[in-house]
Amino acid sequence: MALLAHERYCDEIVRLTGELRATLRGADLGATVPTCPDWTLRELAEHVGRAHRWAGEIVRTRATEEVADEKVPDNSPAGDDPAALDAWLAEGAAGTADALREAGPGTEVWSWSWDHSAGFWARRMALETVVHLADAALAAEVPYTMEPEPAADTIEEWLQIVAFAQKVGYSGSAELPRDGRTLHLHATDVPGAEWLIRLGAEGVTWSREHGKADVALRGSLTDVMLVFNRRLAPDSDRVEVLGDAGLLDFWLARTSFG
Asked: Which of 71, 88, 143, 198 is 20–30 Å from 77 (CA)?
């Protein structure tokens, strides 16, 4: 799958943060987030805002090593007023998008990943917001549907993160089987939104295709993405699991890096 344009990722950071802000208005900011039970809704929002500012500072300063949290300007909203949180989120998203646009996708900066570029951070922050917007919507009990391109890209990026984590031996990803078993993701509402994932000797690989697998996950693209990111249970009546459900459960348990 081709990446979205750099400018699109920058736009999505601002757009999705706007949706997050709308979700927070009138919501109980002290409510527990069901998919991130260690956080309240306010803490989730502050996490998103800090992530944006952190990535923006990395890009703005052309950092060659990890930036400490205390080095990031305005790293917390000014006060507990929901209006202050709203303004802080908006300013952070806009500032980070501006820094990313000014740098361009090819500018070299530090990252924890396989890709040391500003383009990596534009994509990472846009897709981070895709997932945490879902967390906020679940906590606020409002509907959530993601546009097809960012939803599909969220799945694709997560596969890259899992493969990278397995390669470097990070966390539970090292326990993923290498016996040739397969998983198939099939979005029923978007043509071509299918992934065949292979757990081979060389590690996790995948292709965009339809194919028979040991386990298949079927549903809308939004819901497949939510299950894949552990935001919707695989036994939800919104999706269908065919075949070896235990393999899907094992995958989900070993690909959580939070």
From this structure: 143
